[in-house]
Amino acid sequence: MGPRPPGVQPTLAIVHSISLPPGHYRGDAVERLFTNRLNWDEHPYFESIRGLQVSAHFFVRRSGRVVQFAATGARAWHAGVSSWRGRSNCNDWSVGIELEGLDSGGFEQAQYASLVCLLAALARRYPLREVVGHEDVAPGRKTDPGPAFDWFGLARSLQRSPLRVPRVGLAPRRASATVRSPGP
Fold it and tell me: How far is residue 171 from each of residues 54, 61, 95, 124, 176, measured CA to CA in Å?
């Protein structure tokens, strides 16, 4: 974690998925990884990520509980080598949200509900405009949150916010653009 470049505010939210060890939920290994306290010798899988220094702004548990690791005004190390719409270094101008899960598995309704609330709150505070997956900003390198993530459901839930979900091509609904059918 560290400061964002001067004058830069987050305009992008990046959704990730993680569980440590993979497929194990409800433990504290993710929290220990994001706070540089993971015991690399505790599980054989941890050897493959030994020395990794990553963080996210938020972690959404299977229960929907949200844990914050970095101030949203600060930069977190969640996107790695990344680019969106021709702009590189996504860590500089994004908020990273990790969902407890696997890119090959599904997510809980409580997680989606918390994610929508979190995104709406962030959009009220920052000029966030788009929500994408890690796989979108690091194609070929990352696959999360994966094919089971409900992008259409997220887009529907965010229709009344300024956030767009480019993956499904739904633009936010504007009150002035609401079309009503004429009565009988």
Answer: 32, 28, 20, 17, 14
CATH code for position 123? 3.40.80.10
Q: Determine, yes or no, domain membership for 48.
A: yes
pTM: 0.90
State the residue range of the domain holding 73. 2-169
Give the model confidence (pLDDT) of 76-112 as tens digits.
Answer: 999 999 999 999 999 999 999 999 999 998 999 999 9
Q: Is residue 145 part of a domain?
A: yes
* 154, part of any domain: yes
Q: Is 42 one of the catalytic residues? A: no
Domain count, the chain: 1
| Residues 78, 69: Cα–Cα separation, whole Å | 11
Nearest to 75 by CA among 97, 92, 96, 87: 92
Helices and strands in the chain: count of H runs, count of E runs: 4, 9
CB-based contact 69:34 (threshold 8 Å)? yes
Per DSSP, the three-state class of 21 is coil
Catalytic-labelled residue, pool 31, 42, 47, 98? 98
Q: Is residue 178 part of a domain?
A: no
